[in-house]
Specification:
The structure is a single chain. The chain starts with 17 loop residues before the first strand and ends with a strand. 0% of the residues lie in helices and 37% in strands. It contains no helices and 34 strands. With 394 residues, the chain is mainly β.
Length: 394
């Protein structure tokens, strides 16, 4: 090829050269090369042949070898060329080593308890036909027969033991001196009953549980009664108490609910559900100051200071023992009015020979009106003992 100097045209001078460009000048004729020696390049007239170099090394994805052992297994060796095992014979397996490459080897039975049958790509292992059983130290039981439904028991390095079969409801019970065994649970003191069945066991208390075992010895207890201890005997239960009764003890007898009494009548009792009010009859009365309607309390006075036009309605006690006293003194312009209890039928006030008949039997008319009442029939009848002012009775 000739060159026209005016065009500055390059020309190829050797077989296999290529025209290779440059970012800084005109292209030039040059040969292909493989700096890592991973390719082989053969040039000829008008031709280039490129092949991977034989024995491509591991860092470039090759094996570093040009021939591999038939039926061998390839083994990694870091960045070095791979290694290849010798071909294994029938039944051999690849077995590793802590000091080198794994290799095909034949499995052996040093104790002679396993037999091996080899074939192409096959290996069969069986317990040696003339061995009757496998010993415990070799992972067996040391026995050729086991009791049906029995439980196997460890005996150290000796042959395992087997319990007799348990019957319905029996449980495996240990022993500090020997093997555990199936046994029947019992209740020597007769406090439990047992129900047994196939693979089942139920236990229940004998009813009633006696005091000696933490029970009461009773199957029913009186409603609202108090349970009383009786030594080792069954507990006793009081009758239910009525409103305001208290539990009173007795020497060598059970306590019982009883109503408190005042033989001289100097104490009055006002019982209610789970409540009991005790007051001294007569003597000085405590006074309550109020500007609104309220209820009387037995043996108490009320200072009513209600303003016009409000009237202080003062309601008689629901229950009042004979001898109860109440007083009222008015100081407000609204005055006061005594009303009967809405829950106690038949309450009346006697003012001399006048007997009230309305639900508001007594009322004041002026500031300073006052009255003192005495209960003469429990809960029902009140007498006017003294009065101040011009009171109205209806």
């Amino acid at each position: 090829m000739t060159t026209n100097n005016s065009w500055n045209t390059p020309y190829l001078t050797s077989d296999g050269q290529l025209l290779i460009g440059s970012s800084t000048g005109r292209p030039i004729a040059a040969f292909l090369s493989s700096t890592s020696q991973t390719l082989s390049i053969v040039s000829g007239p008008g031709s280039i042949n490129i092949d991977v170099s034989a024995g491509l090394s591991v860092p470039f994805g090759g094996t570093g070898r040009t021939i591999l052992t038939s039926y061998g297994v390839l083994l990694g060796e870091g960045t070095n060329s791979v290694n290849v095992t010798a071909a294994g014979t029938n039944g051999q397996v690849l077995i590793s080593s802590s000091t080198g490459d794994p290799a095909f080897s034949t499995i052996t039975s040093v104790g002679g308890t396993i037999t091996f049958s080899y074939g192409p790509n096959s290996l069969n292992l069986e317990v040696t036909s003339d061995v009757e059983f496998v010993y415990v130290e070799q992972g067996g039981t040391g026995r050729t027969v086991l009791t049906t439904y029995g439980v196997m028991l460890g005996e150290g390095s000796n042959n395992v033991n087997v319990t007799a079969a348990g019957t319905d409801g029996q449980v495996l019970i240990g022993s500090s001196t020997g093997d555990p065994a199936f046994g029947t649970i019992t209740s020597p003191l007769g406090t439990l009953t047992f129900g047994v069945g196939h693979n089942s066991l139920t236990a229940d208390l004998v009813v009633p549980v006696i005091v000696g075992f933490g029970g009461t010895g009773r199957t029913t207890l009186t409603t609202y009664g108090v349970v009383l201890g009786e030594g080792a005997n069954n507990v006793n239960v009081t009758a239910a108490g009525t409103d305001g009764q208290v539990l009173i003890g007795g020497t060598s007898i059970d306590p019982a609910f009883t109503t408190l009494a005042s033989s001289s009548g100097s104490i009055q009792f006002s019982p209610g559900p789970n409540s009991l009010s005790i007051d001294v009859v007569g003597g000085g009365l405590p006074w309550i100051y109020t500007t609104t309607s309220t209820y009387f309390t037995n043996n108490t006075g009320i200072i009513a200071n209600s303003s016009t036009p409000t009237v202080a309605v003062l309601t008689l006690p629901e229950t009042a023992p004979r001898g109860s006293v109440i007083r009222v003194s008015g100081m407000g312009t609204g005055g006061w009015q005594i009303a009967t209890s809405p829950t106690t039928a038949g309450q009346v006030i006697n003012f001399g020979d006048v007997v009230s008949s309305s639900s508001t039997p007594l009322a004041s008319t002026e500031i300073g009106d006052a009255v003192e009442l005495l209960c003469v029939t429990a809960n029902q009848t009140w007498f006017v003992l003294s009065a101040q002012g011009n009171l109205t009775v209806t």
